[in-house]
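call fold(seq) -> C-alpha coordinates
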Amino acid sequence: MNILITGGTGTVGSCVMRALLERGYRTRILTRSPERTGGLPEGAQAVAGDLESPASLEAAFDGANALFLLTPMHPEEAQMGLNAVRAAMHARVRHVVYLSVHHADRLAHIPHIASKLPVEERLHTCGLPFTILRPNNFYQNDLRFRESIAHYGVYPQPLSAKGVSRVDIRDIAAAAVAAFTQPGHEGKTYSVAGPQALTGEEVAETFARHLHRSVHYIGDDLDGWEHNALQFLPAWMVRDLRLMYAHFLEHGLMA
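ret:
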Protein backbone atom coordinates (compact mmCIF):
# COMPACT_ATOMS: atom_id res chain seq x y z
CA MET A 1 0.00 0.00 0.00
CA ASN A 2 1.27 3.46 -0.94
CA ILE A 3 -0.01 6.03 1.55
CA LEU A 4 0.03 9.78 0.90
CA ILE A 5 0.53 11.91 4.01
CA THR A 6 -0.29 15.59 4.20
CA GLY A 7 1.55 17.43 6.94
CA GLY A 8 4.16 14.70 6.83
CA THR A 9 7.02 17.01 7.76
CA GLY A 10 5.29 18.17 10.94
CA THR A 11 5.10 16.72 14.43
CA VAL A 12 2.16 14.35 13.98
CA GLY A 13 2.56 13.60 10.28
CA SER A 14 6.21 12.61 10.60
CA CYS A 15 5.33 10.30 13.49
CA VAL A 16 2.63 8.65 11.36
CA MET A 17 5.12 8.32 8.51
CA ARG A 18 7.66 6.55 10.72
CA ALA A 19 5.02 4.22 12.16
CA LEU A 20 3.87 3.22 8.67
CA LEU A 21 7.41 2.72 7.42
CA GLU A 22 8.12 0.43 10.37
CA ARG A 23 5.21 -1.72 9.22
CA GLY A 24 6.64 -1.91 5.70
CA TYR A 25 4.33 0.54 3.94
CA ARG A 26 5.56 3.08 1.39
CA THR A 27 4.70 6.71 2.03
CA ARG A 28 4.53 9.88 0.01
CA ILE A 29 4.94 13.18 1.81
CA LEU A 30 2.98 16.06 0.28
CA THR A 31 4.99 19.27 0.41
CA ARG A 32 5.09 22.54 -1.46
CA SER A 33 8.88 22.31 -1.69
CA PRO A 34 10.16 18.72 -2.07
CA GLU A 35 13.72 19.98 -2.46
CA ARG A 36 13.62 21.36 1.10
CA THR A 37 12.47 18.22 2.88
CA GLY A 38 16.00 16.96 3.46
CA GLY A 39 16.77 13.28 3.69
CA LEU A 40 13.58 11.30 4.18
CA PRO A 41 13.81 7.73 5.48
CA GLU A 42 13.95 4.85 3.03
CA GLY A 43 10.45 4.10 1.79
CA ALA A 44 9.31 7.75 1.97
CA GLN A 45 9.15 10.03 -1.04
CA ALA A 46 8.47 13.77 -1.16
CA VAL A 47 5.89 14.82 -3.76
CA ALA A 48 5.01 18.36 -4.80
CA GLY A 49 1.57 19.68 -3.98
CA ASP A 50 -0.24 22.45 -2.16
CA LEU A 51 -3.60 21.96 -0.42
CA GLU A 52 -4.46 25.56 -1.31
CA SER A 53 -4.01 24.76 -5.01
CA PRO A 54 -6.34 21.98 -6.20
CA ALA A 55 -4.63 21.82 -9.59
CA SER A 56 -1.36 20.83 -7.91
CA LEU A 57 -2.85 17.78 -6.23
CA GLU A 58 -3.69 15.53 -9.15
CA ALA A 59 -0.13 14.37 -9.82
CA ALA A 60 0.64 14.02 -6.11
CA PHE A 61 -2.40 11.81 -5.51
CA ASP A 62 -1.92 9.71 -8.66
CA GLY A 63 -1.16 6.12 -7.64
CA ALA A 64 -1.81 6.68 -3.93
CA ASN A 65 -3.80 3.85 -2.35
CA ALA A 66 -4.65 5.69 0.86
CA LEU A 67 -4.48 9.16 2.42
CA PHE A 68 -3.58 10.40 5.88
CA LEU A 69 -5.17 13.84 5.87
CA LEU A 70 -3.82 16.44 8.28
CA THR A 71 -4.55 20.08 7.58
CA PRO A 72 -2.55 22.96 9.09
CA MET A 73 -4.05 25.66 11.28
CA HIS A 74 -4.80 28.23 8.58
CA PRO A 75 -7.57 30.74 7.74
CA GLU A 76 -8.51 28.51 4.77
CA GLU A 77 -8.12 25.21 6.60
CA ALA A 78 -11.60 23.90 5.82
CA GLN A 79 -11.18 24.52 2.08
CA MET A 80 -7.75 22.89 2.14
CA GLY A 81 -9.27 19.77 3.65
CA LEU A 82 -12.09 19.74 1.12
CA ASN A 83 -9.57 20.12 -1.71
CA ALA A 84 -7.76 17.05 -0.43
CA VAL A 85 -10.96 15.00 -0.22
CA ARG A 86 -11.85 15.99 -3.77
CA ALA A 87 -8.40 14.92 -5.00
CA ALA A 88 -8.74 11.63 -3.10
CA MET A 89 -12.08 10.99 -4.79
CA HIS A 90 -10.58 11.67 -8.20
CA ALA A 91 -7.68 9.31 -7.44
CA ARG A 92 -10.08 6.71 -6.01
CA VAL A 93 -8.00 6.09 -2.93
CA ARG A 94 -9.12 3.08 -0.90
CA HIS A 95 -9.07 4.69 2.54
CA VAL A 96 -8.82 8.17 4.08
CA VAL A 97 -7.77 8.66 7.70
CA TYR A 98 -8.55 12.23 8.75
CA LEU A 99 -7.11 14.00 11.77
CA SER A 100 -9.83 16.10 13.38
CA VAL A 101 -10.10 17.36 17.00
CA HIS A 102 -11.50 15.85 20.20
CA HIS A 103 -15.18 16.81 20.64
CA ALA A 104 -15.00 18.95 17.48
CA ASP A 105 -18.79 19.09 17.20
CA ARG A 106 -19.01 20.69 20.68
CA LEU A 107 -16.35 23.31 19.98
CA ALA A 108 -17.62 24.93 16.79
CA HIS A 109 -17.17 28.42 18.27
CA ILE A 110 -13.40 27.96 17.90
CA PRO A 111 -12.48 28.68 14.24
CA HIS A 112 -9.69 26.15 13.70
CA ILE A 113 -11.82 23.42 15.26
CA ALA A 114 -14.95 24.46 13.34
CA SER A 115 -12.90 24.10 10.14
CA LYS A 116 -12.73 20.33 10.74
CA LEU A 117 -16.50 19.85 10.59
CA PRO A 118 -17.09 20.48 6.84
CA VAL A 119 -14.33 17.98 6.06
CA GLU A 120 -15.87 15.39 8.38
CA GLU A 121 -19.26 15.97 6.75
CA ARG A 122 -17.81 15.59 3.25
CA LEU A 123 -16.15 12.33 4.17
CA HIS A 124 -19.51 10.98 5.28
CA THR A 125 -21.01 11.73 1.86
CA CYS A 126 -18.14 11.31 -0.63
CA GLY A 127 -18.35 7.53 -0.98
CA LEU A 128 -14.75 6.82 0.03
CA PRO A 129 -13.94 4.53 2.96
CA PHE A 130 -12.76 6.74 5.80
CA THR A 131 -11.82 6.83 9.46
CA ILE A 132 -11.87 10.01 11.55
CA LEU A 133 -9.46 10.40 14.46
CA ARG A 134 -10.25 13.09 17.03
CA PRO A 135 -7.20 13.54 19.27
CA ASN A 136 -7.04 15.77 22.33
CA ASN A 137 -4.22 18.21 23.15
CA PHE A 138 -0.80 16.67 22.44
CA TYR A 139 1.89 16.24 25.09
CA GLN A 140 4.35 17.26 22.37
CA ASN A 141 2.77 20.73 22.30
CA ASP A 142 4.86 21.38 25.41
CA LEU A 143 7.97 21.51 23.22
CA ARG A 144 6.81 25.01 22.25
CA PHE A 145 7.26 26.05 25.86
CA ARG A 146 10.66 24.44 26.38
CA GLU A 147 12.46 27.75 26.92
CA SER A 148 9.86 29.01 29.39
CA ILE A 149 10.08 25.76 31.37
CA ALA A 150 13.84 25.28 31.25
CA HIS A 151 15.06 28.87 31.62
CA TYR A 152 12.29 30.66 33.50
CA GLY A 153 10.71 27.86 35.52
CA VAL A 154 7.17 28.56 34.30
CA TYR A 155 4.63 26.46 32.43
CA PRO A 156 2.44 28.85 30.42
CA GLN A 157 0.02 26.64 28.47
CA PRO A 158 -3.54 27.39 29.72
CA LEU A 159 -4.77 23.93 30.77
CA SER A 160 -6.78 25.10 33.82
CA ALA A 161 -7.80 23.43 37.04
CA LYS A 162 -10.52 21.53 35.14
CA GLY A 163 -8.07 19.32 33.26
CA VAL A 164 -7.39 18.13 29.72
CA SER A 165 -7.11 14.45 28.74
CA ARG A 166 -3.89 14.85 26.81
CA VAL A 167 -2.46 12.33 24.35
CA ASP A 168 0.93 11.36 22.97
CA ILE A 169 1.37 11.69 19.20
CA ARG A 170 2.72 8.12 19.14
CA ASP A 171 -0.73 6.93 20.20
CA ILE A 172 -2.26 8.95 17.37
CA ALA A 173 0.15 7.31 14.94
CA ALA A 174 -0.71 3.87 16.31
CA ALA A 175 -4.42 4.60 15.82
CA ALA A 176 -3.78 5.73 12.23
CA VAL A 177 -1.79 2.59 11.45
CA ALA A 178 -4.56 0.42 12.91
CA ALA A 179 -7.16 2.22 10.80
CA PHE A 180 -5.16 1.62 7.62
CA THR A 181 -4.12 -1.96 8.29
CA GLN A 182 -6.94 -3.60 10.26
CA PRO A 183 -10.50 -4.28 9.07
CA GLY A 184 -13.55 -2.80 10.71
CA HIS A 185 -12.57 0.86 11.04
CA GLU A 186 -14.29 2.18 7.91
CA GLY A 187 -16.91 4.83 8.63
CA LYS A 188 -15.87 5.11 12.28
CA THR A 189 -14.96 8.19 14.33
CA TYR A 190 -12.63 7.66 17.28
CA SER A 191 -11.68 9.98 20.11
CA VAL A 192 -8.00 9.67 20.94
CA ALA A 193 -7.51 10.94 24.49
CA GLY A 194 -5.55 10.05 27.59
CA PRO A 195 -7.03 8.27 30.61
CA GLN A 196 -6.39 11.18 32.97
CA ALA A 197 -7.51 14.81 32.79
CA LEU A 198 -4.33 16.69 33.70
CA THR A 199 -4.50 20.19 35.12
CA GLY A 200 -1.97 22.91 34.42
CA GLU A 201 -0.68 22.62 37.97
CA GLU A 202 -0.19 18.85 37.58
CA VAL A 203 1.77 19.29 34.35
CA ALA A 204 4.00 21.93 35.97
CA GLU A 205 4.57 19.65 38.97
CA THR A 206 5.56 16.80 36.64
CA PHE A 207 8.16 18.96 34.92
CA ALA A 208 9.44 20.17 38.30
CA ARG A 209 9.83 16.61 39.56
CA HIS A 210 11.79 15.43 36.53
CA LEU A 211 13.88 18.58 36.12
CA HIS A 212 14.62 18.80 39.87
CA ARG A 213 13.72 22.48 39.97
CA SER A 214 10.71 24.70 40.60
CA VAL A 215 8.26 25.03 37.71
CA HIS A 216 5.20 27.20 38.31
CA TYR A 217 1.95 27.12 36.33
CA ILE A 218 0.94 30.56 35.01
CA GLY A 219 -1.50 29.54 32.28
CA ASP A 220 -4.64 30.96 33.91
CA ASP A 221 -3.42 34.45 32.93
CA LEU A 222 -4.86 34.52 29.41
CA ASP A 223 -3.95 38.17 28.90
CA GLY A 224 -0.33 37.38 29.73
CA TRP A 225 -0.38 34.34 27.45
CA GLU A 226 -1.81 36.43 24.60
CA HIS A 227 0.78 39.18 25.06
CA ASN A 228 3.61 36.66 24.84
CA ALA A 229 2.06 34.68 21.98
CA LEU A 230 1.71 37.82 19.84
CA GLN A 231 5.50 38.10 19.83
CA PHE A 232 5.83 35.07 17.55
CA LEU A 233 2.38 34.10 16.21
CA PRO A 234 0.06 35.98 13.82
CA ALA A 235 -2.80 37.85 15.47
CA TRP A 236 -5.52 35.69 13.85
CA MET A 237 -3.94 32.54 15.28
CA VAL A 238 -3.58 34.04 18.75
CA ARG A 239 -7.26 35.06 18.77
CA ASP A 240 -8.24 31.55 17.68
CA LEU A 241 -6.06 29.81 20.27
CA ARG A 242 -7.27 32.15 23.00
CA LEU A 243 -10.83 30.96 22.37
CA MET A 244 -9.65 27.37 22.72
CA TYR A 245 -7.73 28.06 25.91
CA ALA A 246 -10.65 30.02 27.35
CA HIS A 247 -12.74 26.88 26.86
CA PHE A 248 -10.08 24.84 28.63
CA LEU A 249 -10.11 27.25 31.57
CA GLU A 250 -13.89 27.24 31.91
CA HIS A 251 -14.75 23.66 31.02
CA GLY A 252 -11.57 21.62 30.56
CA LEU A 253 -11.50 19.05 27.74
CA MET A 254 -11.94 15.59 29.10
CA ALA A 255 -12.23 12.18 27.47
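The chain has a mean pLDDT of 96.
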